[in-house]
Write a structure and sequence with these properties.
By secondary structure, the protein is mostly beta strands. The chain has one domain: Immunoglobulins (Immunoglobulin-like). The protein has 1 helix and 9 strands. Strands 2, 3, 6, 7 and 8 form a 5-stranded antiparallel sheet that branches. About 10% of the residues are buried. About 10% of the residues have low confidence.
Amino acid sequence: MKKTMLALWATLTLFACVQPAYEKTVVITLKVEGIKDIQTVGVRGEGAPLSWDEDIYLQPVVKDSLYTLTATARTGYTFTEIKFTVNGQFELEGKPNRRLEFAEGDTTFYNATYNVEK
């Protein structure tokens, strides 16, 4: 009986700790200044679909100047951490990651300038 009660308590405790997850869409607009012959512009970060090992590529709106990405993910967090890359090179070397805080609604708009702290 004691083992059954302990197992029931452990199961209920595990389920009580699960936070709700929401579908969030993020629209990123990145301005790149002073870099020519850009081959790739990407974002890396914490939490799927982001990764610190691989870029998710932004699409050019204006080549060598303005890039954008729209992505949707399911998360229980209120923010994520990111850094941008140009030609595979990380921005803000030796500085903290950017903190992208999700808006209250379904869609978050995030505007940034490459290698410039917000």
